[in-house]
Amino acid sequence: MMPLFADASAPSPTKEGEGEEELFPHNGYDYDAEDDALSGVVLLNEEGFPLELAGEDDAKNGAEGSEKTPGKGEFAADFYLCGTDWSCLLPEDCSGSVKLKRGDLVHDPMPSGKKLKQVNLLQIWGLKKNSDEDSFSASSIDYKQSLSGNFDAGDGGGILSGKKSVKAESWESMSRDVQTHSVKSNHFRERMNNGDVNRRSPACPFYKKIPGTAFTVDAFRYGCIEGCSAYFLSHFHSDHYGGLGKKWSHGPIYCTPLTARLVQMCLSVNPLYICPLELNIKQVIEGVTVTLLEANHCPGAALIHFYLPNGQCYLHTGDFRASKQMQDYPLLVNQHVNILYLDTTYCNPKYKFPPQETVLNYVVKITDNHLKKQPRTLVVVGAYSIGKECVYRAISKALKAKIYANASRRRILQAFGWSELSDSLCTNGNNTFLHVLPMASLRFERLKDYLKTYEDQFTAVLAFRPTGWTFNQKIGNHLELIKPISKGNITIYGVPYSEHSSFTELREFVQYLKPDKIIPTVNIWNEANREKMKSYFRDWLRG
After folding, report:
1. Quick one: 478 and 378 in the same domain?
2. Are residues 423 and 371 both part of a single domain?
3. How many whole angstroms separate alpha carbon 419 and alpha carbon 78?
4. Which of 514, 453, 451, 457 is nearest to 487 (CA)?
5. pLDDT at position 120, please?
6. Using alpha carbons only, what angle is made at residue 396 by residues 449 and 493, rounded to the nearest 5 degrees?
7. Rounded Cα gap, residues 74 and 78, in angstroms
8. What 3-state class would DSSP assign to 391?
9. Which positions of the chain have pLDDT values less than 70?
10. Greatest Cα-to-Cα distance within the chain, rounded to the nearest angstrom
């Protein structure tokens, strides 16, 4: 008998929980900002959309005033160019100030503050080529020594003229530090040019590798993985596709057709590397029979079923919401699963979600009742880049309302190829009461500002935050006990609509499959969590 639980002990990741759900609070994957910079991954804006979608503008309507169209040069560019503040090197009562412009030191005659900054973090890290105008080095500072032993910055007597000045030794020390750093940056760039970046890429963890094959699942941020000839993507959420971008060239990417369209459209991956596989169709890849099954997560998400020539069978769930219907999947009925790679986002007994349909009916009921009392209410549903579509579609269908979303989201929704959804979208926020916003926008101040854009049309906001993290044990399935939070004319409901399996659903799924071995893929970095999950798995399989 194979061991029940693979001990996924590993050093703690550099950063936990970046967020496609909240936006990804359950993300247990290694993450480092430098990984993205090295791999050419597309950065996401605060809405969870790839910044490369910025070319399309919304139709001119009331929404423009409240939502920025995502674009290059917003947060990411500002952050990486913001640099390091060295103001402490200047005298406290210096009468002038220094400001940086495109990497050069210039004089600011106004005493508005004392600043001395290295402006380009990419340059510091060696990730951007130095140019004459971007370089910050001792040679770019035009200074001369005065008779008094002080330095002047260029022609105007500048920052160091007057009563206070920086001594020559201070400038010389700064120059030495900058030159030393320049040598280090050049060395790093040389290593990159020579292809010596492997030691900067984190090692691919074992639970992303399929034993007995040359396959990995959701392992794109690890670069070119030794021995891997096929890369599988379970769904289009950034904690799973992280590492994919237009520079991807490490091997074929297998995923569902819907995910394939999003990978090409949003991440600009070369289509030669994208290999779409239809659901429920067996495909033989390098001698292994691979079948993708509906995962009941976000659009395009799939369970990945591997059947090896030696008779071993492995099932990788990616992210999924287990359901009774899955027990009727022919492959799961007829083939014993030896190893189950399990989405354990909510593997905790306190999470016992109500059925999705129950939550949707509740949301529609609350919306209908609210509109009857206050017809001029703007209804907002929080969502991720993809996911939660069922919530606003349920309202749209029941109340016969169009759905407004900004241009970036509309482009993604239309890529699903669902005619009913595409036909229900509208481009002008004034033409419908039903709007979709990023989950992060469901805060009172943001919603208040958003409402101002439509103040001629609406007088109040009713918002829904549909996520499993809002689940309350005391309420359970009694959704009528949910108490919204209100502030003025803004009301927000947290509803336990989850696209991940609850604890009870995980238990039922495992007890149905009875796998020989379970490998959890989420929340594994804490030893206490691993031990708890191990005990749960043992109990489930004994039952």
Report:
1. yes
2. yes
3. 39
4. 451
5. 52
6. 50
7. 6
8. helix
9. 1-200, 543
10. 91
